[in-house]
Amino acid sequence: METYQILGLIGSLLLIIVLIIPISFFYYHYSMMGYYGGMMGFGMFYGGFFFLFLPILAFILGIIGSLISDRTIAGVLLIIASIFSLTAMFFGIIPFILLLIAGIMALTYKKT
User: Fold this and answer.
1) What is the pLDDT of residue 44?
2) Any transmembrane segments, and where (predicted)?
């Protein structure tokens, strides 16, 4: 595997971790009054379905961009995935940087 592919896979996997942590905290609530489930805090944290859909799409594009051997298409997919990963709030800055660097490396470095 080349360097851009490894960076793309690491960025995509970090993006999923960034998504799982807030979901686990906000999906089920525990309180002194008992246990109840719901999406109350989750909707407030992410701003609705739209901001959950784009990071999942960024994960899919990042994985596909990392597994494609054509460097031009992979670079474009990784850069698009990095832009979509910004919707994962302030926790998504590390996957954004990794996916952006992977996309730039795929587009600029020539295979020798």
Assistant:
1) 47
2) 6-30, 42-68, 74-107
